[in-house]
Amino acid sequence: MKTVLSSEWLKIRSVRSTYLILGLSLGAILLGLGLAVMAAHMYDTAPAAKRPSARIADLEEAVVIVPQLCMGILGTLAITSEYVTGLIRTSLTVVPRRWPILAAKSTVVGTLGLLVGSATVFGTYFVTRWVLGDRFSGAYTSAFLDRLPLLTTLSLTVPTFALLGLALGALLRSAAAAIAIMVGLVYVIPIIIGNIPEPWSDRLGSLMIGALPREITGDIITTSVYGYLLPPAVAAAALVAYAALPLVAAGWLIRRRDA
Hints:
Elements: H1 2-13, H2 16-26, H3 28-45, H4 59-63, H5 65-85, H6 87-94, H7 99-132, H8 135-138, H9 144-172, H10 175-194, H11 200-205, H12 212-217, H13 232-254
Helix pairs in contact: 1-7, 2-5, 3-7, 5-7, 5-9, 5-10, 7-9, 9-10, 9-13
């Protein structure tokens, strides 16, 4: 298994697209910085009477979409590129049991997703806190330890997308199809669910990945397109299931069909 891990790490770090995707992911910190500067300027130029009622969304929660999609794409390309080039036949010849290949790829892309997700979420939080100071009624002046659970769970959604992308790539053997599904999970499906009559919009919205971090930590807000009906333990299980169930299906399928 150590040899297979080394091989998969060599594959992913020898491709230029990997560094481009990682750069775009970490660029979310600059996006968060730009949004924070813009928000600070709007606050400072607003009439004094309106400043006490001014509010701002958690910027780290907004920009995490960027590394989610980027690392999901990286996970997809980690396996679909081998099907396109035919390298998968060589890999399966060298490792005929097959499941170690998927396990090694999962370890590599999952670890990268965790590192990138943590850097992006915590980096965005700290630069936003530095820029905004006590503006917006002190939205970013609460103790760091109070925000730590939510920041941690937000970070975990990034490796979830990386593993989901890998699993979809293995199942579909098509990067375009896998990426389309992930884009749908982030953008399209929440919009559709938001327009469904109650109570189904809340019920289905509670299952979306975007809702799970706050459900896990119990840090609920009312001004959101998602529902918040799941208890923390169920929400945590749902987050794990987004990655685990597709990976199990991919592992089962990859052992039963030809390369």
